[in-house]
Amino acid sequence: MVSGTTQVVAVIGHPIAQVKSPDNFNHYFAGQQIDSVMIPVDIAPEAVDAYLQALRGCCNMSGVLVTVPHKQRAAALVDELTPRARHLGAVNAIRRLPDGRLQGDMLDGLGFMMAADGHGFSPAGKRALLCGCGGVGSAIAWSLCEGGIAHLALHDASPAMLQQLQQRLAQHFPGVAITGLPDSLDNLDLLVNGSPAGMPGCDLLPLPAALLASLGPSTHVADVVTAPVMTPLLTLARERGCPVQTGPEMAFAQMPLLGEFIGAMPRQAEAAV
Question: What is the CATH number of the domain that holds 25?
Answer without folding.
Answer: 3.40.50.10860
